[in-house]
Amino acid sequence: MNLNATLIVQIVVFLALWWFTAKFVWPPITKALDERSRRIAEGLAAADKARSELAAAEKRVEQELKTARAGAAEVRGSAEKQAAGIVDKAREEANAIVAAARKSAEEEAALAAQKAREQLREQVAQLAVAGAERILRKEIDASRHAELLNNLKNELR
Predict the structure, then answer these.
(1) pTM of the model
(2) Membrane-crossing residues (predicted)?
């Protein structure tokens, strides 16, 4: 066989194989590679977008937490003020009740003291009359007796 003919046949076969590969094999492979590159790029873009959305969501959550904490602090402060107001009101009512009870007790004590004074005056008057009767050794008439007791009461006041 001739070396030139073999070389020419190999070149023709090579060119035919190259043409066949370039025409029928290579386009689907490049198309598949391009499609895969496109899907990878889309996946990376989606991952970046998801990462940025996650960061934005975290910021929104943080902001909502701050708002919720501020609202809770406000509610707690309001509740504390309301509780303090209720305690102050209860304290004022208790003080008013104590003052009223004290006033009532003082009035009762004053009334009891007044009654005791009246009873003491009557007893002193009766003792004075009894002592005077013994001294005089005679009985005083009832009207005169009542008049003397009233005069003695008035003097003792």
Answers:
(1) 0.42
(2) 6-26
